Amino acid sequence: MRAPMRPRLALLVLMAAAFAGACFGLAGAAGTSPYDRPGPRPDVFVRDSDDEDSASPQQVHVSLVGRDKMRISWITRGSAPPTVDYGKSPGTSQNSATGSTTTYKYALYKSGQIHEAVIGPLEPNTVYYYRCSSDSAREFSFKTPPTQFPIKFAVAGDLGQTGWTKTTLQHIGQSTYDVLLLPGDLSYADFYQPRWDSFGRLVEPLASQRPWMVTQGNHEIEKIPLIHPSPFTSYNARWRMPFEESGSDSNLYYSFDVAGVHVVMLGSYTDFDPSSAQYKWLQTALGKVDRTRTPWIAVLIHAPWYNSNTAHQGEEESIGMKASMEGLLYQGRVDVVFAGHVHAYERFTRVYNGSANDCGPVHITIGDGGNREGLAKRYINPAPPISVFREASFGHGQLEVVNATHALWTWHRNDDDEDMEADSTWWTSLSSNPACKV
Fold it and tell me: How large is the angle between the packed helices 163-174 and 194-207, nearest 10 degrees?
């Protein structure tokens, strides 16, 4: 991972970048802005530490598994046991769990040892201390989310690895969030696999302390004809989510419950037509939701279904998926849909079938985490009536679900490194609206 890029690998990366630009329409910044924004910031690459041996855990992150378990994921350069020792006091390990180890190859790259172990049962709203691969030199801690309201989510899409990403992560770290939701485009590795390792190191300080629940975007596909024809290899190997527990057959779409909120993660870049496995799974999953247990439903996609930015207009992942699945979300009385892809922020009113609808979900585009392609600064004017707030700035969102009926949404802009609350609104759950009963 620390060696210079070899010539053949460099050629593959250049070919892959050209292929990505041609096939995925990756957008850069364009247009003007209503006020002077700070300029772009350079890419960040977090290198491996020379002080750690080959069995030292790195790229540690945690994710939810069921109501009272957590998956711990980490990587070592060399062989190490896939064990996690954990307890409720620092330096002590009353419990231990053993998981599994995998690796993957991508062109000339071979990953480190990717370990994961599921630990629990765990108590809610409790800090646990843990060590991976029995490494006494690195002790981590995380806090489990509550099982009852209130609960707070951080929401950030299209993170990447730039100076703006570091600012976004710093601002998220200053909040008291319980779970992070990421609607796709994580590392922007774009075929160059060491960037996945860098991303894992970059987010470890946060991702090792709170569960990060993610879905994939177009930058996770990483499919190259003839060279690497399988999509999502790196994403699936490194960011395993609890899809089996929700009856899904794919790591690309799944759902989970946490503290009265049912969260659905969908895959914009896998089949979504009515005959697809994802569509049938979603139909079944929404039909099983008990609104007395989870009064709120949030859905995450990558390509937005509603978008008044000039970037990413007319894409099948937006138009086709909306045509196939919007009816399911409306009948399921989904409260909010978060999307990424467009490198800007936009909040819509409650909407269905292109028009304002009091029983439809709020749609929010939040692809502004800090990607290396820049902001999507140009909007369609005049703004459509259903678009309430839009701005091309980097930032993140926070969703505080206070109780079964009310939640506060805020969007925080990264303006000259200051965390500025630029948009805020209260929502009432659809399950508490008599007019929206189904």
Answer: 20
**Beta-strand pair 127-132/83-87:** antiparallel
Neighbours of 409 (CB within 10 A): 20
Concerning whether 406 is annotated as a catalytic residue, the answer is no
Residue 142 reports pLDDT greater than 80: yes
Which residue's structure tokens are 């090792």? 208
The verdict on residue 265 lying in a domain is: yes
Per-residue tokens: 277: 């496995």
CA distance 265 to 273: 16
Query: To which H or E segment does residue 425 belong?
Result: strand 418-428
The C-alpha torsion from 158 through 163 and 164 to 167, rounded to 10°, is: 110
Tell me: do 377 and 418 sit in the same domain.
yes
Task: Name the band, by pLDDT with cuts 50, 70 and 90, for residue 37.
Answer: low
Pairing of strands 418-428, 296-300: unpaired
Give the residue numbers spanning the domain of 287: 146-432
Instruction: Using DSSP, state whether 190 is helix, strand or coil.
Output: coil
Query: Catalytic residue among 262, 312, 343, 412, which?
Result: 312
Write the pLDDT tens digit of every residue in 108-122.
999 999 999 999 999
Residues 211 and 241 in one domain: yes
Chain centre distance of CA 281:
20
Residue 392 C-alpha from the chain's centroid: 20
Model-level pTM? Answer: 0.91
d(CA 240, CA 258) in angstroms, rounded, equals: 18
Is 33:377 a contact under the CB 8 Å cutoff? yes
Closest CA to 34 of 360, 331, 390: 390
Q: Are strands 355-356 and 345-352 parallel, antiparallel or unpaired?
A: antiparallel
Assess whether 228 and 323 both reside in one domain.
Answer: yes
- Cα separation, 33 vs 146, in Å, equals 41
Q: Given a cut of 50, is residue 20 above it in pLDDT?
A: no
H-state helical runs in 194-269: 194-207, 233-238
